[in-house]
């Protein structure tokens, strides 16, 4: 037992992400099952395994920190596995979708159409029709999309429910991926919104509210709190121009998760406390407006691992290479090629010698014929041989479906919700 504790502490020291995961007899456990057994059950490596309890716990933590009045939405594109979405349908208040196929997943999971909204550029007429027929809220990204949406509603004999996605006139600081502030394909420039609102009602559209999303993977809770307050102020300003009440305001999210040992975990209590003030202000200015926070990565990102198998172990000019059956075709982001400026290792461990003392420095690579297929650069690990399993942590969001799975025509990764 004492030895076990020392092993756990050693893992936590290597990377805070490891501290949250249990292991037994040198095997990482997902949902209480050793990853080796999971590999047998799934009949293959590589695979993604998502821990149901961790997802549930994260939503609970969010509920505890955020004001009660805030509605929590899950952004499906972070992880659209139907079982994951189904699990979340009983935990969150709504879903945000980014394609008509995500609409199918959202509705199949049992979420009420009233609490699903569809954002994203380049919605086709066919997608707009599917969304309107599904009774969900269309987040308008441009004035011309508004016109097409009205036409689609006419052709169906239905009144489309719409919200206006606003491109704010300020930038969110500290965000990994900016999605507003300057010129953008996302949303309607804040200064054009009054004109849009004046035309909207005449087109036979039902106005629901505003959606203002500042960016993704923000680790600065202070920056998020400031942005949320600025977003509230902007919505209050724009609401003056709406002909009907603002029924909801989606203030985005973008809460980040730590990937490197230096990344500090997102300060959720701070954002929660500050949001209480923002929500109160909104309640005074816009009584009856529901406030929505939408999150993808923060809800599922830390609940998943990607597991692959060592196929070859070789030494090249003094460096050890663990050559695996995994790679960037399944886990692009872990190789630093998913919009990151600089490549940094994700937390990576030998899942079949988990908790053991590191004895050597290795590179973990994938099976693709490109030097960018590097899963871990010079990490310190226990001895691993052919047949051992490698786990990449923080893989619950933007993993399988955010990777070029057809590249090199290898088999796809499987997924399990455990
Ligand atoms: C991608 C996206 C999200 C989810 O972002 P996370 O960083 O995963 O929380 C939320 N809203 C919109 C509009 C998005 O495009």
Largest sheet: 8 strands, mixed
- The CATH C-level name of the largest domain is Alpha Beta
Number of distinct helices: 11
- Backbone shape: elongated
Broad structural category: alpha/beta
The N- and C-terminal alpha carbons lie at a distance of 26 Å
CATH architecture of the largest domain: Alpha-Beta Barrel
Portion in beta strands: 25-35%
Radius of gyration: 23 Å
DSSP, total strands: 22
CATH fold name of the largest domain, please? Answer: TIM Barrel
Bound molecules: pyridoxal-5'-phosphate
Into which percent range does the helicity of residues fall? 25-40%
| Mean pLDDT level | 96
Per CATH, the superfamily of the largest domain is Alanine racemase
Low confidence ranges: none
Domain count, please report it.
Answer: 2
Structure write-up:
With 418 residues, this protein is α/β, with parallel strands linked by helices. It has two domains: 2-51 and 302-417, Lyase, Ornithine Decarboxylase, Chain A, domain 1 (Beta Barrel), CATH 2.40.37; 80-295, TIM Barrel. 30% of the residues lie in helices and 26% in strands. The protein has eleven helices and 22 strands. The strands form four sheets. Strands 4, 16, 17, 18, 19, 20, 21 and 22 form an eight-stranded mixed β-sheet that branches. The protein has an eight-stranded parallel beta barrel with strand order 5-6-7-8-9-12-14-15, surrounded by four helices. It has a three-stranded antiparallel β-sheet with strand order 1-2-3. Helix 6 packs across helix 7 (143-156) and helix 9 (221-239) packs parallel to helix 10. Bound molecules: pyridoxal-5'-phosphate (PLP). Pyridoxal-5'-phosphate is lined by residues 75, 77-78, 96, 119, 213, 216-217, 253-254, 294-298, 397. Keywords: Pyridoxal phosphate. It comes from Iodidimonas gelatinilytica.
């Amino acid at each position: 037992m004492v030895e076990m504790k020392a092993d756990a502490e050693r893992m936590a020291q290597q990377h805070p992400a490891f501290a949250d995961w249990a292991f037994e007899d040198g095997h990482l456990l997902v949902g209480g099952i050793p990853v080796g057994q999971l590999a047998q059950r799934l009949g293959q490596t590589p695979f993604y395994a998502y821990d149901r309890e961790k997802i549930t716990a994260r939503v609970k933590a969010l509920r505890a920190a955020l004001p009660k009045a805030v509605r929590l939405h899950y952004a499906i594109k972070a992880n659209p596995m139907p079982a994951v979405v189904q699990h979340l349908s009983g935990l969150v208040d709504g879903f945000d979708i980014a394609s008509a196929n995500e609409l199918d997943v959202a509705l199949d999971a049992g979420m009420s159409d009233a609490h699903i909204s569809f954002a994203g550029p380049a919605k086709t007429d066919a997608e707009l029709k599917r969304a309107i027929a599904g009774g969900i809220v269309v987040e308008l990204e441009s004035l011309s999309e508004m016109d097409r949406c009205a036409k689609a509603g006419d052709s169906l004999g239905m009144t489309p429910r719409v919200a206006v996605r606003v491109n704010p006139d300020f930038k969110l600081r500290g965000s990994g991926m900016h999605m507003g502030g300057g010129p953008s394909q996302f949303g309607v420039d804040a200064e054009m919104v009054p004109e849009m609102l004046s035309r909207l009602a005449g087109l036979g559209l039902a106005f629901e509210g505003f959606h203002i999303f500042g960016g993704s993977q923000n680790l600065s809770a202070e920056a998020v709190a400031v942005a949320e307050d600025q977003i509230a102020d902007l919505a209050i300003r724009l609401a003056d121009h709406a002909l009907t009440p603002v029924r909801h305001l989606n203030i985005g999210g973008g809460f980040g998760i730590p990937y490197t040992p230096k990344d500090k975990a997102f300060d959720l209590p701070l954002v929660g406390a500050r949001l209480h003030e923002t929500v109160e202000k909104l309640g005074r200015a816009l009584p009856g407006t529901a406030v929505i926070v939408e999150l993808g990565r923060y809800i599922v990102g830390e609940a998943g691992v990607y597991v692959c198998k060592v196929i070859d172990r070789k030494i090249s000019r003094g460096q050890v290479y663990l050559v695996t059956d995994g790679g960037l075709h399944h886990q692009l982001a872990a190789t630093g090629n998913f919009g990151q400026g600089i490549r940094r290792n994700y937390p990576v461990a030998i899942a079949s010698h988990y908790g053991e003392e590191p004895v050597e420095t290795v590179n973990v690579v994938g099976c693709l014929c490109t030097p960018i297929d590097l899963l871990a650069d010079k990490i310190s690990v226990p001895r691993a041989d052919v047949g051992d399993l490698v786990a990449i942590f923080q893989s619950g969001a933007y993993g399988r479906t955010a990777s070029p799975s057809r590249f090199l025509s290898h088999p796809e990764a499987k997924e399990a919700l455990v």
